[in-house]
Design brief:
With 330 residues, the protein is α/β, with parallel strands linked by helices. The chain has ten helices and 15 strands. The strands form four sheets. It has a five-stranded mixed β-sheet, with helices on both faces. The protein has a four-stranded parallel β-sheet with strand order 3-2-4-5, covered by helices on one side. It binds iron/sulfur cluster.
Length: 330
C-alpha cells in the first residue's frame, strides 16, 4: 500500500478535464516501488511510466502527445512549465508526535524555526501544536518565488529558513537525510536538528556542516591553482542558469584563464572526463556537493569560483541556492 496521501480523485478529474489519453507518470526514486500501484489507479488512461530518474520539480519530462504527471514534488512557482504538466504531491502519513515531544522536552531552544521537505509539510501543524503546548515559540517562514509552501525547503533553496533566522534560536527540520539540514545550517548559521519520524531520533547537524565546509575549502584551494575551467550548464527546465554560467566564463577569462562551456540534461560524473582542471556547476547544487568525489576533477559552485578567483572573501561563503532560472519559451 502506498504510504502517502495522494489525491487520485482530483487527479483523475483534472486528467478528464484536460481530455487526457496518454499519460506519462514520473515518480521520484524513493517512490518507484509504488509506480505500478500508481499506474493501476489511473487505469482509465493510457499510462506510461518514465524510468528516467527525477529528483525535483525542476526536472520534468514532457512530450507533445502526452500529459505528464509528476508525483511527489510541489511545483516551483516561478518556473514557466509547459501546459500539459500536472504536479501531484505525495504527503507522508507518518506522525511526528513522538519525536516532536522528545524534542520539546529536551529544551534545545525556546524559539524554533520549523522547516520541512515537501512530503512532511502537513505534519508542521501537528509539530507546531506540540511545541506550543510545551511553551516553545514557533516560526514558519515564507519562501521566495521558488517555494510553494511556508517552511518548505529544497536542496537548492532555504529562503523559508533564512527569512526567520533572525527570530529563532535553532531550526527543527522535519524529514530524513542530512543534506537539507546541513544546507539550512550554512544558510542561517543557526543550529539545525533533524526530527526523523521513522526512527524518532533527533540529530544535530552542526558538526556535519563544519566537515562539509572543510571539504568545500579544500575544493576552493584546488581551484585557486587551476588555469582551465569547465563551466556546466544544466538544461533541465528548473536547473538552467545559463546567464550565470556566461557571466562566470567572463570572470574566468578576465583573470587570464581559460573557460569552456558544457551543456547536459542529466549530469553524470562519468561523462565528464575532459581535460580541464576544475568544473564549475551552475546546475542542481546537489551535484556539486553530493557527487563531488565521483567527478574526475574537483567541482565547485559559482560562489566558490568567485572565492577561488579572489573576487569574494571566504567570509562571504554561502551555500549555492537557486532563486530563479532562465526562462525558456514553449
Ligand atoms: S535543482 Fe536540485 S535541489 Fe533544486 S529542486 Fe531540483 S533536484 Fe532539488
Amino acid at each position: 500500500m502506498i504510504p502517502y496521501f495522494i489525491d487520485f480523485q482530483n487527479l483523475r478529474e483534472e486528467l478528464k478535464r484536460k481530455k487526457a489519453e496518454k499519460v506519462l507518470i514520473q515518480v521520484p526514486e524513493g517512490m518507484k516501488i509504488y509506480a505500478l500501484e500508481i499506474a493501476d489507479k489511473l487505469r482509465d488512461f493510457d499510462v506510461r511510466i518514465s524510468s528516467n530518474p527525477t529528483y525535483g520539480a525542476c526536472d520534468v519530462e514532457y512530450y507533445k502527445d502526452a500529459i505528464t504527471v509528476q508525483f511527489g514534488h510541489a511545483e516551483i512557482p516561478n518556473i514557466t512549465y509547459p501546459k500539459d504538466v500536472i504536479f501531484v504531491e505525495a504527503f507522508s502519513t507518518r506522525s511526528f508526535k513522538e519525536v516532536a515531544r522528545k524534542f520539546a522536552n529536551s529544551a534545545k531552544c525556546e524559539k524554533v524555526g520549523l522547516i520541512a521537505s515537501v512530503q512532511h509539510i502537513p505534519a508542521m501543524e501537528e509539530v507546531k501544536k506540540i511545541f506550543e503546548e510545551e511553551g516553545i515559540n514557533v516560526f514558519v517562514g515564507k519562501g521566495d518565488g521558488r517555494i510553494k509552501y511556508r517552511g518548505q525547503v529544497l536542496g537548492c533553496n532555504f529562503s523559508t529558513a533564512r527569512n526567520v533566522a533572525g527570530q529563532v534560536d535553532c531550526f527543527a527540520f522535519l524529514g530524513t537525510g542530512k543534506f537539507h539540514a546541513i544546507g539550512a545550517r550554512i544558510a542561517t548559521n543557526k543550529s539545525v536538528y533533524i526530527l526523523d519520524p521513522y526512527s524518532n531520533i533527533i540529530t544535530n547537524v552542526d558538526g556535519d556542516a563544519d566537515r562539509f565546509l572543510r571539504q568545500r575549502f579544500g575544493a576552493i584551494v584546488k581551484a585557486e591553482e587551476a588555469s582551465i575551467f569547465g563551466i556546466i550548464v544544466g538544461t533541465k527546465i528548473g536547473q538552467k542558469r545559463e546567464k550565470l554560467a556566461l557571466a562566470l566564463k567572463e570572470i574566468v577569462e578576465a583573470k587570464g584563464k581559460k573557460a569552456y562551456m558544457f551543456y547536459a540534461g542529466r549530469i553524470n560524473p562519468e561523462d565528464f572526463y575532459y581535460n580541464v582542471d576544475v568544473f564549475v556547476n551552475t546546475s542542481c547544487p546537489r551535484i556539486t556537493y553530493d557527487d563531488y568525489l565521483r567527478f574526475p576533477k574537483p567541482i565547485i559552485s559559482p560562489i566558490e569560483l568567485q572565492i577561488a578567483l579572489k573576487i569574494k572573501a571566504w567570509e562571504q561563503y554561502s551555500f549555492d541556492e537557486i532563486v530563479e532560472v532562465d526562462r525558456d519559451k514553449y
